[in-house]
Design a protein that fits this description.
By secondary structure, the chain is mainly α. Helices cover 62% and strands 0% of the residues.
């Protein structure tokens, strides 16, 4: 064994044992650092609404419904489209 290799091996072992364990579960909504894509698109649609750009808002809402149909934002997008007088295009 090379000189210092035992020290290095012990250091690597202790580092790996004390490293934080990553879990595969999703974080709670209040702990998330990033938006999910449907949420980002919905926020973009809201910005278009505030700017008075109804065509861009409708197109963004349709994209949410088509690309992320099982998202909670898809249901909100459907409601918004109905209130705007337009159903999602297929």
């Amino acid at each position: 064994m090379l000189p210092g290799s035992r020290v290095l091996a012990a250091l690597l072992l202790s580092t790996s044992l004390t490293a934080p364990i990553q879990c595969a579960g999703k974080p709670k909504p209040e702990q998330r650092l990033e938006e999910e894509p449907a949420e980002a698109l919905y926020n973009l649609a809201e910005r278009f609404k505030k700017l008075g750009n109804q065509p861009a808002q409708a197109e963004t809402l349709r994209a949410i419904v088509e690309r992320y149909p099982s998202s909670r934002f898809a249901e909100a997008a459907r409601i918004d489209l109905e209130q705007m007088g337009g159903a999602p295009r297929r």
